[in-house]
Q: What sequence folds into this?
């Protein structure tokens, strides 16, 4: 393993993040606050409790998930798309590094950034609602796994994308709807039976459910299934990336 | 031992386009090789394949004895690449960009070395500037600094002076000469013949994916030194008179033109004696002209030969 190279990529990517630290920091704080004002105060005052948890607290895991998934994807996809776009990818391809090292560097940095944003949102949420975390280790594990797997997914999108529109396409058209329909702001049990069944085909349901379990001990689906889902998603992304580098798809001619 | 060995390297792109049709080449440590060729000749494909940006269809490349596929880490560590396009991240500083390149190639941090590289390229006082603030010539030097940051033994310069003004071109040549003094082997591509003439030890001519010629610049220049004098005769002759047999003469165009080849750099060109011997032999001159074949002529000739 060329750890010097991995560190170089990681630091270089993180430097980009720190250059725009204010933006990176302020935008999640503002958007989280807005969600609390709209969902927590306006709507939440009419819902009061969901399965014994105040509505404001209930949406916190979903909010964090929403952000780290979209941030993980956009950070990683931009991270690898940008060198392709401006041409600096030549250096990556001519360097004595293999694909595992490139992925660790880029995906590691993207996952770190989204983890940072997740923590910021958690802290912001703490100002609005009383939070209890029943399984802190599971909470951290779910957060890290989600950040990593969605950064891997973003990396694939970044390599696939041929222009900036495509870069936005998957997050906007697929991920955001899946997250909104994945129980971020409601419990699956609140839906009519037919839609409960349909929802179970949405992979994001399993992630949010597991994450919420780590907070409140309540879940829409068994926690084991949530773990299997996220491990499966990570595995699929890893295989896809392995294939991309092996075949040189959209990178090496 | 050769620092770079290329054996029968072929590259066929997906659409069936043959960019390299079996190129073989050996480059000695410390030399400067100029690869001349028109646009689309395969120069960049050749470099990209050696550096790992493009995969070859067949053939072998060894850098410092290491195969570029099986020992890609060892091989690529020895190579520095300066691409043709100015591919740089505009928002980064010179210093961070160069340090990143060094790290990416697995070399431990060495700020003192990077400082000497930047000093040499007159970039040291710009080290904290963002790339977007630099002039075109400076950006090109940043690319060189990046390529040198990991102490390569072979440096590829892909069209280092394309679109660069005359003064900057001269600067670039000086930089290359200095790198050679430091013992770096340099392979550069260019479509400027003067460039190859000014800095190369050997010149290779490549067109349509084939290496048409590979020669020491000195001997190539010798061929350039040759001049021809065409003597048009009033009346055509069947054969050369006995008295002229000592000269390097050729009878052309049905006996009405005599072509004399001579070396402009030799002490005596023999023109005076030839002319007096011609009139002594009773030949009447109608016209006289001389012509020199330039590297351009050789180059164009080779390229045309390749096309026919």
A:
């Amino acid at each position: 393993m060329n750890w010097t190279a991995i560190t170089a990529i990681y630091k270089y990517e993180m430097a980009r993040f720190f250059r725009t630290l204010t933006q990176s920091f302020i935008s999640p704080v503002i958007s989280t606050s807005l969600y609390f004002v709209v969902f927590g105060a306006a709507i939440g005052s009419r819902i009061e409790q969901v399965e014994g948890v105040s509505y404001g607290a209930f949406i916190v895991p979903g909010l964090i998930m929403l952000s780290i998934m979209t941030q993980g994807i956009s950070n990683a996809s931009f991270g690898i798309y940008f060198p392709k776009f401006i041409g600096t990818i030549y250096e990556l391809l001519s360097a004595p590094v293999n694909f595992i090292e490139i992925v660790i560097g880029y995906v590691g940095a993207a996952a770190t950034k989204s983890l940072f944003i997740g923590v910021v949102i958690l802290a912001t949420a703490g100002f609005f609602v009383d939070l209890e975390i029943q399984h802190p280790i599971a909470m951290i594990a779910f957060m890290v796994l989600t950040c990593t797997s969605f950064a891997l997914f973003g990396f694939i999108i970044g390599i696939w994308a041929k222009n900036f529109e495509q870069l936005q396409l998957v997050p906007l058209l697929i991920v955001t709807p899946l997250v909104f329909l994945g129980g971020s702001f409601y419990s699956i049990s609140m839906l009519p039976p037919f839609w409960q069944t349909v929802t179970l085909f949405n992979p994001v349901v399993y992630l949010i459910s597991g994450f919420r379990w780590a907070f409140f001990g309540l879940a829409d689906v068994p926690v084991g299934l949530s773990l299997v889902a996220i491990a499966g998603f990570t595995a699929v992304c890893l295989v896809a990336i392995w294939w991309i580098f092996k075949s040189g798809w959209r990178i090496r001619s | 031992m050769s620092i770079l060995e290329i054996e029968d390297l072929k590259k066929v792109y997906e659409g069936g386009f043959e960019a390299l049709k079996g190129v073989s080449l050996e480059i000695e440590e410390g030399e400067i090789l100029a690869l001349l060729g028109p646009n689309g000749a395969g120069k960049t494909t050749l470099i990209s394949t050696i550096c790992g940006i493009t995969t070859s269809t067949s053939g072998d490349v060894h850098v410092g004895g290491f195969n570029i596929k099986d020992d890609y880490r060892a091989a690529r560590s020895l190579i520095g690449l300066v691409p043709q396009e100015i591919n740089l991240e505009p928002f980064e500083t010179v210093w961070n960009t160069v340090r990143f390149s060094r790290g990416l190639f697995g070399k431990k941090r060495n700020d003192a070395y990077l400082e000497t590289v930047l000093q040499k390229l007159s970039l040291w006082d710009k080290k904290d500037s963002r790339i977007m603030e630099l002039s075109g010539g400076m950006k090109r030097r940043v690319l060189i600094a990046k390529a040198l940051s990991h102490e390569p033994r072979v440096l590829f310069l892909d069209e280092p002076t394309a679109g660069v003004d005359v003064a900057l071109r001269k600067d670039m040549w000086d930089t290359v000469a200095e790198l050679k003094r430091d013992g770096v082997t340099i392979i550069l591509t260019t479509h400027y013949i003067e460039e190859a003439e000014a800095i190369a030890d050997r010149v290779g001519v490549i067109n349509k994916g084939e290496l048409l010629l590979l020669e020491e610049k000195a001997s190539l220049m010798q061929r350039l030194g040759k001049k021809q004098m065409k003597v048009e005769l009033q009346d055509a002759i069947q054969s050369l008179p006995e008295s002229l047999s000592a000269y390097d003469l050729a009878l052309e165009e049905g006996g009405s033109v005599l072509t004399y080849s001579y070396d402009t750099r030799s002490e005596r060109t023999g023109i005076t004696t030839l002319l007096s011997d011609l009139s002594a032999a009773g030949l009447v001159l109608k016209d006289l002209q001389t012509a020199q074949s330039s590297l351009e002529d050789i180059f164009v000739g080779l390229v045309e030969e390749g096309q026919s």
Summary: The radius of gyration of chain A is 19 Å. Chain A has one domain: 3-247. Chain A touches chain B at residues 2, 4-5, 7-9, 11-12, 15-16, 19, 82-83, 86-88, 90-97, 248, 252-253 (CB under 8 Å). The first strand of chain A starts at residue 49 and ends at 50.
